């Protein structure tokens, strides 16, 4: 229902209860626009959502927005990035920084209501308008019609920096005789079981008709539960597994506990279970730039694998296209980019292809690195992206002091002699748009 706003002093606005500038049905929830990005100059958007019992969105990641939930009525459960379930009643606030997987659910017996504030504003307004339906009947949701085209929703969400991890169905095309002939099972520990690289690896293994088990903290029906951070569930997760493809990582939170200590816990469980091959993914140049904490932890994790006593293979890869894109999306109106930083981005699927080749071969220790087809500066990649996206932000190259920056300028994270990938930075967006959810 449209609201005739009453303008107060200094441009203040009053929105009466139950009203807003627009109301839409989105994923079965009634979303009312309380304050729009136009009104705030793009600083934030504020919505009120009414959620039916049992309702709520699928787990997702917002790569370009921070989000806060304030519960007005009802009882909600929030899933946070550590896999914990947080129960929240009226007066509770739940904050989610960008880049964190999360979801929520109304666990009460009545409709719940919450305010959602997103910064910066505008992205979700456009997303909701593209996939939602006008709330002409505020008492009846057309949720089925909206959710019937989940493939399209995932594709649209990606345009606004929203990642909705796919829910994978187990392969059921084999008969019992064929299944009984298998004597190997490959396990893929992956962040939430749907990490960028891990999900592509699972796809490739499925195409090769391998028996795959995905370990995750999410407790989803298509995964086995195991938590590298606290070390629980690992023995059960690796039981009966012959090969482990270790794709799990936590670059921004508790990296030492997950990447180093968690890897040690996983391999101790693997040793007890009799695993015959561990395939580990690392990063090109971690030994040439150990000054950056994440790289130092990855180097430490490599050493854990090497000293585990298990047969192993370690592959180092350069930056994924998606990682570079994430950095560019977070730039402000005046884009400050590090001067002369050298990168060699590679398509994630090409790294997944190589990992699967290695997993299906004998343990090989440290294998040759893989990199993308071109070594380019961060500024050059940013210019190319802006041109393709039709953006006109000013790019300013900023000299960055310190050992980490010097290593980047010297090409520590590149391997020009190992141009394994063939998909260029300019080709990447077109291929990403064509990719469909299995």
Q: Topology of this protein?
A:
Elements: E1 6-7, E2 13-14, E3 22-26, E4 29-35, H1 37-40, E5 45-51, E6 60-62, E7 66-73, E8 76-79, E9 85-88, E10 93-96, E11 101-106, E12 112-119, H2 123-131, E13 133-134, H3 143-147, H4 150-159, E14 162-163, H5 176-180, E15 186-189, H6 196-207, E16 212-216, E17 224-225, H7 234-238, E18 243-246, H8 255-273, E19 277-283, H9 293-306, E20 312-317, H10 321-329, E21 334-338, E22 342-343, H11 348-359, E23 365-366, E24 376-377, H12 378-389, E25 394-398, H13 403-409, H14 428-434
Parallel strand pairs: 15-16, 15-18, 16-17, 18-19, 19-20, 20-23, 21-25
Antiparallel strand pairs: 1-2, 3-4, 3-13, 4-5, 5-12, 6-11, 6-14, 7-10, 7-12, 8-9, 8-11, 22-24
Helix pairs in contact: 6-11, 8-9
Number of domains: 2
Q: List how many beta strands DSSP finds.
A: 25
**What summary fits the major beta sheet?**
7 strands, antiparallel
CATH class term of the largest domain: Alpha Beta
CATH superfamily of the largest domain: NAD(P)-binding Rossmann-like Domain
Describe this structure in words.
This protein is an alpha/beta fold. It folds into 2 domains: 158 residues, Jelly Rolls, CATH 2.60.120.10; 259 residues, 3-Layer(aba) Sandwich (Rossmann fold), CATH 3.40.50.720. 30% of the residues lie in helices and 25% in strands. The chain has 14 helices and 25 strands. The strands form 6 sheets. It has a 7-stranded antiparallel beta sheet with strand order 10-7-12-5-4-3-13. The chain has a 7-stranded parallel beta sheet with strand order 17-16-15-18-19-20-23, with helices on both faces. Helix 6 packs across helix 11 and helix 8 packs parallel to helix 9. The two termini are 38 Å apart. The N terminus and C terminus are likely disordered.
